[in-house]
Amino acid sequence: MTNREKFPGAEFASARTDMPRVPDVVQASHTSKLVKLSEVTKTYAGADGGFTALRRVGLEFSAGEYAAIVGKSGSGKSTLLNMLTGIDHPTKGTVVINGTDVHTLGESALASWRGKNIGIVFQFFQLIPTLTVLENLLLAMDFVKAIPKNERQRRAERLLEQMGIAQQGRKLPSALSGGEQQRAAIARALANDPPIVIADEPTGNLDSQTTEVIQSLFKQLADAGKTVIVVTHDQTAIAKFGRVVTLKDGMVASDRQVRVEEQGSLP
Ligand SMILES: Nc1ncnc2c1ncn2[C@@H]1O[C@H](COP(=O)(O)OP(=O)(O)O)[C@@H](O)[C@H]1O
Ligand SMILES: [Mg+2]
User: How does DSSP assign the chain, residue by residue?
Assistant: First the structure.
């Protein structure tokens, strides 16, 4: 099975001939710097002058990179992800994702841009509880409209199949185990075939065996050409990443490429 068959999400890595081109979808190449943060500072306002959660962070990520962001609680990891996704605005600095200066977009342009370009996975899954799993995926596609309408149902079913939860599509999220809900959330993150997948402690609420399954799904996504950036506390997973960025007090304390021969052998 090729990666392309494994993940419908993998198609972005090669030229698509099966779909109309959507102009503002990132057309990534493996050599480009897909994500570029420059001098990003974030100060949360407060009566006492505020709290600076990120200080002049500069980071670049290439297409296809599989990166972990680690650091103690409060070091700024979630804040950093929120800058990347445009969920929150930096106080200073820029975030450019394949040529789009994310924070210059207005609210509705930003929502549409995010839907096409970034799949987001949260610790507590954040599936809509009143919709079935399939409906959660369909809603994501209906909102963004990057996938032709007549392909959405089939694509949603295929993604659930690939996540190993084909049988769960017609259930409400609450009827699924935590690991299954996270698989559903990953499927939803891939629904619009974004080039970038970002996850904030996606295994923080899962047992160790399920954690391993979820981590290996992320690894497969990166192998299939997605840029995957994961905030994790999980020490055993870190060895599997190609790169580990450590934050400390809102600054990049280290940024380490993991050599292929080291991968899987780190403590
Ligand atoms: N909305 C907010 N208002 C004020 N302070 C915040 C806000 N969000 C986060 N912080 C503070 O910023 C720091 C970094 O938070 P966060 O990015 O969530 O860290 P991490 O994800 O690494 O645990 C923490 O000290 C946190 O208390
Ligand atoms: Mg956090």
Answer: --HHHH-GGGGGGS---SSPPPTTS----TTSEEEEEEEEEEEE--TTS-EEEEEEEEEEEETT-EEEEE--TTSSHHHHHHHHHTSS--SEEEEEETTEEGGGS-HHHHHHHHHHHEEEE-TT----TTS-HHHHHHHHHHHH--S-HHHHHHHHHHHHHHTT-GGGTTS-GGGS-HHHHHHHHHHHHHTT--SEEEEESTTTTS-HHHHHHHHHHHHHHHHTT-EEEEE---HHHHTTSSEEEEEETTEEEEEEEPPGGGTT---
pLDDT at 263: 62
What percentage of the chain reaches a pLDDT higher than 70? 85
Instruction: Classify residue 102: in a domain, yes or no.
Output: yes
Residue 4 domain-assigned (yes or no)? no
pTM over 0.90: no
CATH number at residue 150: 3.40.50.300
Q: 218 lies in a domain?
A: yes
Mutate to test the pocket of ligand 1, among 42, 55, 70, 78 (most ligand atoms within 8 A of CB): 78
Does ligand 1 have an atom closer than 6 angstroms to the CB of 79?
yes
Ligand number nearest to the C-alpha of 45: 1
Q: What is the number of structural domains in the chain?
A: 1
Taking CA atoms only, the protein residue closest to ligand 1 atom 24 is: 74
Q: Residues 95-141: pLDDT tens digits?
A: 999 899 999 999 999 999 999 999 999 999 999 999 999 999 999 99
Closest ligand to C-alpha of residue 47 is 1
pLDDT digits (tens, 9 = 90+) for 239-262: 889 999 999 999 999 999 987 666
Structural domain of residue 125, as residue ranges?
10-257
Any atom of ligand 1 within 6 Å of the Cβ of 53: yes
pLDDT tens-digit readout, 200-214 = 999 998 988 899 889
